[in-house]
Amino acid sequence: MTGRHETLALLLFSAFVAVTLGITTWVSRRRHGSPEEFYAGGRLFSPMENGFAIAGDYMSAASFLGVTGLIALFGYDGLLYVVGFLVAWLVVLFLVAELVRNCGRFTLADVIAARMSERPVRIAVGTSSVTVSVFYLVAQMVGAGSLVALLLGRTGEAAQAWTVIGVGALMVIYVSLGGMRATTWIQIVKAVLLLSGTVALTVLVLVRFHGDIDRLLLTAADRSGHGKAFLVPGLRYGGSWSARLDFVSLGLALVLGTAGLPHILSRFYTVPTARAARRSTVWSIGLIGSFYLMTIVLGFGAAALVGPDAVRASNGNTAVPLLALDLGGGAGSTVGTVLFAVVAAVAFATILAVVAGITLASSASVAHDLYATLRRPHARQRSEVAVARVAAVGIGALAIALGLLARDMNVAFLVGLAFAVAASANLPVLLYSLFWRDFTTRGAVWAVYGGLVPALGLVVLSPVVSGSPGALFPGVDFQYFPLQNPGIVSIPLGFLAGWLGTVTSDEVPDEARHAETEVRSLTGAGAV
Amino acid sequence: MFPICPSLGMQSSNGRHRDGGDGTESSAGRYEDQGEYGAASGEVRYEDPWYDALASGWGEPDGTGGPAPAVPGARTEWEGAAVRTRDVYLEVQRSAAFQEVRRRYRRFVVPGVAVFLTWYVGYVVTATTAPGLMARPVAGAVNVAMVAGLGQFLTTFLLTWAYARHARLRRDRAALELRWDTQELTRGARGGAA
């Protein structure tokens, strides 16, 4: 790797940072410090703006770097991620977006606490939201790290660590100064950048193959060394029954997890009405769907043009930048260098923006759910936002530490875990409280912990953490659960625990509060 | 008090709709839905809360915000200062107008979710259990697996479009009516209780 693309990438990246910092200061210039402003950006974004911002929040480093890498390495099995990521939006659109917008104020816990005894529910849902966010954050940090490792070469260990720290510091600045308004604009800018970059690369790949998809697929299959098997499911998740179950488990986690992601849910509060929430979801489905279609092309393109060896060297996380380098004419050529730098900068921007979005959502959970429940009763309202700003710093620090620890894992795979936790801990309680009349407080608390604890426990006992060569702690072996993704066990457990908690509690379900939730969720009466 | 006449009710509610709505509905949708909701509201419409609010002066302790007794049923419970917000929601929940909105929502969403979840889970399970089937070539390098994967994209886009259209044409208007009605009633209830 030459020094030129490195300099250029750093320049472009600095430009993005400058622009986003500009946005942040411009936005925070007239900040009121109200929770409405900080968590929801004043709720006056248009559906199109919010649609772009949602897409920006969702098209993370996992999709851009991780998924393309997985497709480049495992062919069709990587494509499953993309399908799951997209189909998940139907769950959001049909069951969640409008209803959550109508019932809640800032966080997921608002929706559930409205029907239940507030304190235990807020603590439970706040905890699980923060957990999901931290998992997701780690994935983004790892993406940032491997990108830098590629830019700076193998010698960049220290630089890699400093980048992760720098990304963390920047996001804390965005979030604590700019709140939701700045974060949203950063997402929009980033979504536009990312989509333009993806379109450009896709066009280049297709031009390289003269628009012949067939040849693209065949070349990819040949080069991968797997032949036709590359285009059929089973390369990564084939063979043993546990690998196949893993595949199904991941599929479930992906499709059910999105609707439980706190940073996605909190985006619906930035528009004025449920109708606007629906329209922003439709926008984002369009944008995300087209983006994923293009990542499929990029993934197979990377397999065909870069080849599996170079991609494998980074666990797949750098397939796209390498592809860009090749498309421009290879290392040493000017166009290749520029393309590489642009793509690397876009990927940085992606990571930064997504990290800001998640940090905001989790600091909202900490301040609005956990702190507001546990604090002294007479503390002033103003202080909640102050707590959120501080929480952003704390979460940033935690994510930096974990990101440094997990830096050798595939990003899309880490995100798969975050989705599994979200689907197990957040989705059951959300659906039950929106649609089940007899749901009780105990049911809600059990649903959260009944999904969260098994999901986390199974991850700890899985081959991800120990007992396999690629594990987090390869030296020790306390692996008792054969699957990498816990979803197939923990998601049903979450639903089961919620049901069990409800039928065993002696609390009489409050018919009137259910009526209120139902009427509000479907009509928007009393929505803020 | 004012007689409840569906056409009058529709008119005033149209005006409100424009005030509060996002105002971009297609005109076709507006007419289609107006007819349906008009019919529904003919039976169940309590009264127009906006008129009611003005007439009785909500917020005054004496003006209990009791609705006009033009439509039978569901009336008595709203009278008197002891009425509470929670009763309003129960009452709205039981109203035919709300049940119609809920029915329309569920009629679309339940089969919709069933269809796409079955299709998606079926796809994932087939991919793991029947790689032979998935490997069957369709055209050139494109095999059944590719077609199925792209099919998932296609159905997602189609269902998104269908849902948005259904909600826009069949639910939005009635839901907005209910929203204002409910908010007026809760305000009346609070005012009355004060």
In words, what does this structure look like?
The complex is a heterodimer of chains A (528) and B (194). With 528 residues, chain A is mainly alpha-helical. Chain A has a single domain (3-417), classed as Sodium/glucose cotransporter, CATH 1.20.1730. Chain A is 75% helix and 0% strand. Chain A contains 21 helices and no strands. Chain A has helices spanning 3-28, 35-40, 47-58, 61-74, 76-103, 108-113, 118-152, 157-208, 213-224, 241-257, 262-265, 274-305, 308-312, 319-327, 334-374, 382-405, 411-425, 427-435, 441-460, 487-504, 511-523. The longest helix of chain A is centred in the middle third of the chain and has 52 residues, at 157-208. Chain A is globular. Chain B has 194 residues and is mainly α. Chain B is elongated, with a radius of gyration of 24 Å. The longest helix of chain B is centred in the C-terminal third of the chain and has 50 residues, at 144-193. In chain B, strand 1 and strand 2 (142-143) form a beta hairpin. Chain B starts with 5 loop residues before the first helix and ends with a helix. Chain B is built from 7 helices and 2 strands, in the order H-H-H-H-H-H-E-E-H. Chain B has helices at residues 6-20, 27-44, 49-56, 85-94, 96-129, 131-134, 144-193, and strands at 137-139, 142-143. Chain B has one domain (6-193). A two-stranded antiparallel sheet of chain B has the order 1-2. Classes of the chains: A mainly alpha (528), B mainly alpha (194). At the A-B interface, helix 5, helix 9, helix 10, helix 12 and helix 21 of A face helix 4, helix 5, strand 2 and helix 7 of B.
**What is the helix/strand order of chain A?**
HHHHHHHHHHHHHHHHHHHHH
Low-confidence stretches of chain B: 1-82
Distance between the termini of chain A: 53 Å
State the helical fraction of chain A.
Answer: over 70%
Which pair has the most extensive contact?
Answer: A-B, 61 and 53 residues
CATH homologous superfamily (4th level) name of chain A? Sodium/glucose cotransporter
Q: Quick one: overall form of chain B? A: elongated
Number of helices of chain B: 7
Percentage of residues in helical conformation of chain B = over 70%
Could you tell me the mean pLDDT of chain A? 85
Q: Tell how many strands the DSSP assignment of chain A holds.
A: 0
Shape of chain A: globular
Largest sheet of chain A: none
Q: Stretches of chain A where pLDDT falls below 50 for ≥5 residues?
A: none
Q: Which fold name corresponds to the CATH topology of chain A? A: Sodium/glucose cotransporter
Q: From the alpha-carbon coordinates, what is the Rg of chain A to the nearest angstrom? A: 22 Å
The total number of structural domains of chain B is 1
Q: Structural class of the secondary structure composition of chain A? A: mainly alpha
Largest sheet of chain B: 2 strands, antiparallel
How many beta-strand elements of chain B? 2
